[in-house]
Amino acid sequence: MTHATLRSEFETLIDPYAPVGQLGTGFTFTEGPVWHPADHYLLFSDMPADVRRRWDATRGVVEVKRPSNKCNGMTYDADLNLIVCEHATSSLIRECTDGRRDVLASHFEKQELNSPNDVCVHSSGAIYFSDPWYGRMPVFGVERPRQLGFQGVYRVPPGGGAPQLLVDRSLFDQPNGLCFSPDEKRLYVNDTVQALIRVFDVAADGSLSDARTFANGIRSELEPGLPDGMKCDQHGNIWVTAPGGVWVYAMNGDLLGKVRVPEMVANLSWGGADFRTLFMTATHSVYTVTTKVGPRNEPYMTARGGAAATASSAPAPLLRAEALQLDPKRCALIIQDLQNDVIMEGGAFADSGAPAHARAQRVVDNVRRLAEAARARGVVVIHVWFIVEPGAPGLTLNAPLFEGLVDSKAMVRGSWGAAPVAGLEPRPGDFIVEKMRMSAWEGSRLETILKATGRDMLIDTGAWTNMSIEHTARTGADKGYFMIVPEDCCSTMNAEWHNASINFAMQNVAIVTNADAVIKAMG
Q1: What's the sign of the alpha-carbon dihedral 387, 392, 393, 398?
Q2: CA–CA dist 10, 316 (Å, integer)
Q3: What string of DSSP letters covers 414-450?
Q4: Measured CA distances, 4 to 9, 398, 465 (Å)
Q5: Inter-residue contact 347 to 396 (CB < 8 Å)
Q6: Where are the beta strands (DSSP E) in 96-224?
Q7: Strand arrangement of the beta sheet that strand 21-25 belongs to
Q8: Which of 27, 327, 384, 518 has CA 20 to 30 A from 1's CA?
Q9: How far is CA 67 from CA 28, 48, 195, 206, 273, in A?
Q10: Segment among 258-267, 399-408, 418-427 with least mean pLDDT
């Protein structure tokens, strides 16, 4: 079966001739696929049969729960507790790793929810879910009257609490699949009846705004299939079930291509050892296809053995630089202060000698090469920028460095000087962290991102070696992170200061190596 390429970008995501394999068949109606990242198995539901099943490469398909309360969409939280949408109970529940069952949401304004259908987890721990009324219909649920007069999209706050309605009550007919963009600034929600996808802006408090149509007309009179399950890949493309299989949309809404599947697809999820296998639950069967791209980094994907990986609980890497081995799923690459004012001619600090040393180190080329290799292996890339508002309000002048920054009017938001140097601009899926101190940790959201993504091995690059890089490495070591400093990915005002930091101070807090060794160590 040949997949349909509508734009050339589609073939960077999947081989147009990639074979579609069948894991199992003979089911009633399959849904809710989710991959366990530590134990390497797929869970999926069969709603009409009221069964939950799992598949792994050793045992194949086995039954794990009957009755299953006609469960539909499933995912994990960062601690690998299973989050389940139950049609029969009209509830969103959590099955904990210790066997406990918690009801996360069952009512809104004292009325029963319709039937939670699909679910996704934000890095903050908040849980978002859709609530159409399919679970009150025959076959797909338990037929019974509805108590709510609308179909909504909800958020359960981090730590729990009453579900919060996020959308206008009249906006959706049957809200279904939902997913975040890689940076979590947007939430996509599709509507099966309206055959479209809407996108919302996500505010800092988790609320949604600016509802707009992302894609519509996702229907066909020739092939079965409608918008149902939906996932976002690492580059921000949207993969949604649709007529004939799965349709793939670019971030700008362009339809890139179609993955052809023999049966009508209801949902999909990436998994496998490298998260490059797309599992598709399709009516009576479960299918797989290999992709060239992986998923948006969900909070559960780097969790290990029942809890998110942390610096204190994860096994240590080899520490000797000459035998360095890195697990990409535990790594984050920090690109720090590589902004025009810091290392470019014409920047605020050009007279310091920083541009000449950056050129001598080939720091921009080396960091760019390392970042490309890191992204290809699933390493999180975090850009850390020093940003001040015009006039530098809130910046304490307690050190000559900060005084000089204010006097030079450097790193001002929106200015050329504050922008990243050419070639090191953020890519879709990267994170951006802003700071107003030397260390990347102080007053920033760096550690929040690291904990949410389960990263405890930090590759620290940027400027300046003896200031920002050294401060960040020292604090990271104190916090229990494994710090790796590729010295040819760092620069400062001159070689003498760089060498003093690399050869002495940094040796006690980090693995000091180079870009080629790091790339090799990532496999």
Answers
A1: positive
A2: 39
A3: TSTTTSBPTT----TT-EEEEESSSSSSTTSSHHHHH
A4: 12, 61, 49
A5: no
A6: 101-105, 107-108, 111-112, 119-121, 127-131, 152-156, 164-165, 175-180, 186-191, 196-202, 208-215
A7: 21-25, 285-290, 277-282, 267-271
A8: 27
A9: 14, 11, 31, 34, 30
A10: 399-408
290: which 2 tokens?
Answer: 């290999």
Instruction: Label residue 57 left, alpha or beta by phi (over 0 means left) and psi (-120 to 50 means alpha).
Output: alpha
SS3 396: coil
Say how far apart CA 319 and CA 338 lie, in whole Å.
27
The percentage of residues in the chain with a pLDDT greater than 90, rounded to a whole number, is 80
In which region does residue 50 sit, left (phi positive, over 0), alpha (psi from -120 to 50) or beta (all else)? left
Of 164, 169, 173, 91, residue with least CA distance to 122? 164
One-letter amino acid of 168: D
* Three-state secondary-structure class, residue 496: helix
Task: Kindly tell me the burial class for residue 425, based on how many C-beta atoms sit within 10 Å of its own C-beta (0-12, 13-18, 19 or more).
Answer: exposed
DSSP 130-159: EE-SGGGSTTTS-----SSSS-EEEEEPTT
Backbone region of residue 69 per phi and psi (left: phi > 0; alpha: psi in -120 to 50; beta: other values): left
User: What is the C-alpha to C-alpha distance for residues 518 and 488, in angstroms, rounded to an integer?
Assistant: 11
Q: What are the residues whose beta carbons fall under 8 Å from the beta carbon of 417, sequence distance 6 or more?
A: 339, 340, 341, 347, 348, 410, 411
Q: Quick one: which of 488, 497, 502, 467 has its CA closest to 386?
A: 467
Contacts for 288 with CB less than 8 Å, ≥ 6 apart: 20, 21, 22, 23, 277, 278, 279, 280
What order of strands is seen across the sheet that includes strand 71-76? 71-76, 82-86, 91-95, 101-105
Render pLDDT for 109-133 as a digit per residue (tens, 0 to 9). 999 999 999 999 999 999 999 999 9
Six token digits for residue 428: 């879709």
Strand partners, 103: 93
Contacts of 370 by beta carbon, 8 Å cutoff, 6+ apart: 333, 459, 461, 486, 489, 515, 518, 519
Give yes or no for a contact between 259 and 268, defined as CB atoms under 8 angstroms apart: no
Contact (Cβ atoms closer than 8 angstroms) between residue 286 and residue 229: no
Q: What is the pLDDT of residue 303?
A: 64
DSSP 260-287: E-SS---EEEEETTTT-EEEEEETTEEE
Reported pTM = 0.62
Query: Which of 120-129, 210-219, 306-315, 489-498 has the least mean pLDDT?
Result: 306-315
CA distances from 498 to 127, 274, 400, 504 (A): 46, 37, 19, 10
- 30-35, strands of its sheet edge to edge: 30-35, 42-46, 51-56, 60-65
91 membership: H or E segment, kind and range: strand 91-95
